[in-house]
Amino acid sequence: MTMQPWFTEAKLGIFLHWGIYAVDGVAESWSFFSGSLPYETYMRQLDGFTAARYEPAEWAALFERAGARYAVLTTKHHDGVALWDTRATDLSVVKSTPAGRDLVGPFAAALRERDLRVGLYFSHNDWSHPDYPTVRPSRLHKPWVDNRFAMPLPGEEDPEAWERYLRVVHRGQIRELVENYRPDLLWFDGAWERDEEQWRLGELREQILALGPETVLNGRMGRHGDYATPELGVPITPPDGPWELCYTLGDMWGYQPTDTAHKSVRELVRVFAETIGGGGNLLLNTGPREDGTILPEHAERLEGLGRWIRRNEEAVYGTVAGLPYGHHYGPSTLAPDRRTLFLCCFDPPRGFVELRGLRNKVRRVSVLGTGAELAHRVVGGFPSRDVPGVLRIEAPAAPDPEATVLAVELDGELDLYRGQGEG
Hints:
Elements: H1 5-10, E1 12-16, H2 21-24, H3 30-33, H4 39-43, H5 56-66, E2 70-76, H6 93-96, H7 104-113, E3 117-123, H8 159-181, E4 185-189, H9 196-199, H10 201-211, E5 216-217, E6 244-248, H11 265-277, E7 281-286, H12 296-311, E8 320-321, E9 332-334, E10 340-345, E11 352-355, E12 362-367, E13 376-379, E14 390-394, E15 404-410
Parallel strand pairs: 1-2, 1-7, 2-3, 3-4, 4-5, 6-7
Antiparallel strand pairs: 8-9, 9-10, 10-15, 11-14, 12-15, 13-14
Helix pairs in contact: 5-7, 5-12, 8-10, 11-12
């Protein structure tokens, strides 16, 4: 494992799907793969990609205000268009678009100026390269991948071309990213079209770590990633070990002008709290426009989430997963020393907040952001048989507009009762 402490402590990252698909505002890569747009029409967007207002320092400042500790940029999506001056192909924004320059280097430099960790997304598959659709997996269990951009027809396989793709394009471009930009995190995608053995992902992991021994690898490396990457929905049962939920600010990943379903700050706070309450990170996605500007609506939401995090940062950074379901109506986190429990209340508490199954005595309860102390008492229970009562905490007089967080200071490390009670 190469999991680094910074990752599990970070809690929030920003994901950026940026590429030529923002010119016409179409679905990134999938629009031609699915046949909804001719490939030639999709690729004509190269002529309109300018990055004319790309200011990575402004991006980094916004991410810092949002409370993020890292960001991940799509350096190459499935369409094969690289955002840096790759030597492996001619398909890059440097060689093929009016932008005419490396966009990854300034991104990495701007993040490091703010002490943010650098993540680079890279697609294993490449639906533009002629050497890519040249072998079929031995177990084709996903009929939707049997597509001319991904697969040869049966009997038309070319194993030599596949090996050339792996050596020159796949491994070559990953080596360029690691050597040129020293990413803290490589965020892979797209391995589903081949078997793990065909990708030789174990070998790839060794090659990456030989170049960058502290590089964190996401879960889309088969059995060779460092953490799980659920997508678009908080898992009911959190994955074992480190994990990260990738989630969109709107409905789409890349910029689409028709996507106006921007999630509210309250919605984002809820997803964020549920994610960190389960021990994960939230990787929150925005799709910049082709000129490099981030939608004002997305910037506004990020700023709002950052304000909530600053009011409640004690319950965010460095914490671990909180209570299992059933003890509190809402997510929670736990301080590293396990002596302070943070309860998140999405709706303004009325009357009191309940905490069930707590064996500890409570030293103090207060509201994060205001410091207001709250009265509390234990109701019921069967102490002689080790069945604790219910802790009732008075409702705060001034609840937080997005979500109120209560800090419950315990007399020792958290000790929970998980039994069925006594009759």
